[in-house]
Design the sequence.
């Protein structure tokens, strides 16, 4: 065994870095051992406030190093998704559309949607039991405001406001002010046309009207801005009102 520098020695084909007599990893070691991209390793450490990435144990030359045992344990826990569910799992278990799940998350400030336990490769994971309990309660809270929705037709059809009212099973006058005083979850129009009178004619995707119906809350139609999709530092997609 030949000592290469004060921190690194060669054992067969494996490079072992040591610091204060204990085995540590540089980012180069992690890239070799786990086949990871440098950008991912840098992002995890940069966003350690959200990822819980271990703090550096020191430096090897100009490189940061991490305690090998501590890093291995963190990575194993990070990759463990036992008892957790992603949106794909929720789609399958509850028969919910992905757009519905995304809108439920976007309106979490109003509906108290639980926060994800972890995010792996930009996929959010929730505790299964906690999400199930929340969803059961959410359905109870919204049951009294249930509306009878017409689920027929092509989801990509464009509807006028009056046609959207018929899909929702309500009178056109009851949603006439939605485009200006937007209730929570009301979709943006897919198209708009300026009429000779100066009024705007708006068309909405049928699928967006269905999603609005699925995500109405017991709190009723209060004015709220539309959610946007802004990346969080932890790689999560943050849906919040402009947000």
Sequence:
């Amino acid at each position: 065994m030949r000592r290469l520098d004060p921190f690194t020695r060669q054992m067969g084909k494996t490079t072992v870095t040591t610091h204060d007599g204990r085995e540590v990893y540089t980012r180069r070691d992690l890239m070799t051992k786990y086949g990871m991209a440098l950008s991912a390793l840098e992002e995890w450490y940069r966003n350690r406030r959200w990822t819980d990435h271990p703090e550096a144990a020191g430096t090897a030359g100009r490189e940061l190093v991490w305690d090998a045992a501590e890093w291995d344990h963190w990575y194993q826990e990070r990759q463990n998704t036992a008892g957790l569910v992603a949106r794909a799992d929720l789609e399958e278990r509850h028969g919910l559309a992905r757009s519905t799940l995304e809108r439920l998350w976007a309106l979490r400030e109003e509906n108290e949607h639980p926060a994800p336990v972890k995010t792996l490769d930009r996929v959010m994971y929730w505790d299964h039991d906690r999400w199930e309990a929340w969803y059961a309660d959410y359905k109870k809270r919204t049951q009294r405001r249930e509306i009878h929705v017409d689920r027929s037709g092509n989801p990509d059809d464009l509807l006028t406001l009056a046609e959207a009212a018929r899909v929702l099973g309500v009178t056109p006058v009851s949603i006439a002010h939605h485009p200006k005083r937007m209730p929570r979850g009301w979709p943006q129009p897919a198209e708009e046309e300026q009429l000779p009178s100066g009024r705007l004619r708006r068309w909405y995707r049928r699928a967006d009207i269905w999603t609005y119906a699925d995500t109405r809350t017991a709190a009723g139609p209060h004015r709220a801005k539309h959610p946007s999709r802004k990346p969080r530092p932890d790689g999560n997609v943050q849906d919040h009102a402009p947000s």
Observations:
- Residues 1-14, 217-243 have pLDDT under 50 and may be disordered.
- The longest helix spans residues 128-143.
- The two ends are 56 Å apart (CA to CA).
